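Good day; I would like, with your permission, to put a structural problem before you. What I wish to show you is a protein chain and, alongside it, a tokenised description of its three-dimensional fold. I would ask you to consider whether the tokens describe a fold that such a sequence might reasonably adopt. You will find the record immediately after this paragraph:
***
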Amino acid sequence: MLQEYTPVVRGFLRILLYAGITSLIFLIVYIDAVILQTFGETSYVEIAQAVLLGGISIIFIAAALKIPALQTSAWLLATFSTASLIRENDIWLDMLHPEGWQILVTPVLAAGLFHAWRNRSAFLAEQRIYTESTSFGLLAAALMTTYLFARLYGMGAFWRNVMPNGYDRNVKDMSEECMELFGYGILLCAALEFVALAKRVAQEQKAAGTVEKTA
């Protein structure tokens, strides 16, 4: 009888987890805006972006190494999040070299895409599972939020029309960076859902293998 409520409980726990991540993100924004009143490169929002991307990369790499399912997809997603982490730290890398972040991100992307191409049969088979999952939906939402909407939302022309009596670049930058941080929070949820999906697929594959051997 209690097993009937398991999906509802799991769904509710997911909502609580997502709500907790969202609330933490707003707390970081609130500290920068109200307490510290700064949104520079060393602000908590900027630091949180790097920390989130680093954590997301670790999650995908761990999934690729430890879970025998969706491994090719995990490596490609790890490549994407790692490349984003490098790009997010462009201001520091450019101090070392004018094209510092491009120099680092190119081999990372090349390695990830080559691995996916080399294992394309497995990758395409995995996509039949992954593209129908909650993780993929959250990944798409994160991409739309951070890499599309935040960029459009941060256009200077838009904000000059919003503030015709006194354009404030700091307000524009703050809004855009906060939008990006929220997108990274969604990406974190997508990474956690990916791990859950990979574990479930691995268990199903193991069970199917056991049945075949028994038969």
About this structure: The mean pLDDT is 89. Residues 56 and 188 are 6 Å apart (CA to CA). The chain has nine helices and no strands.
